[in-house]
Specification:
Number of helices: 3
Structural class: alpha+beta
Protein name: Flagellar hook capping protein
């Protein structure tokens, strides 16, 4: 997931998915068309005389639907995580924090919050640090 350069805090409408649908991706409509065609052709739907073809199709459709719902849930959770991270970072403005720097531990007041590559960074003394670099937060 990429963040556009004009991203507005609190807005999820500007999130840009960098995933494009490839020819190997199958939508629910495509699956239903294939299933309907297979049901119309008894030779395809009853391989080897098996009469459980329609049950197999229903099972496959349920599994396919579940996978789509899990994908949507994952995207929703990613958006929620991003929004939570934004709120946490914004709450740190003006607070004294201790962060792990490149070669040392730095303590200072958070001057501002920036967002780089979708991750929140706090600026202390003119230098940016990721939230996971923070060791402690004080008033």
């Amino acid at each position: 997931m990429d963040i556009t350069s004009n991203f507005t805090i609190g807005s999820t409408e500007q999130l840009v998915s960098n995933k494009s649908q490839s020819n190997s991706d199958l939508s629910m409509d495509d699956f239903l068309q294939i299933m309907a065609a297979a049901i119309k052709m008894p030779a395809m739907s009853e391989e080897g005389g098996s009469s459980s073809g329609s049950t197999d199709y229903m099972t496959q459709m349920i599994q396919f639907s579940t996978m789509e719902q899990l994908k949507d849930l994952t995207e929703s959770l990613n958006t929620t995580m991003l929004m939570t991270q934004q709120q946490q970072a914004l709450a740190m403005i003006g607070k004294t924090v201790t962060v792990t720097g490149e070669a040392s531990i730095v303590t200072g007041v958070v001057d501002k919050v920036k967002f780089a590559n979708g991750f929140a960074t706090v600026m202390i003394g003119g230098k940016d640090y990721y939230l996971n670099d923070i060791q402690s937060i004080g008033e």
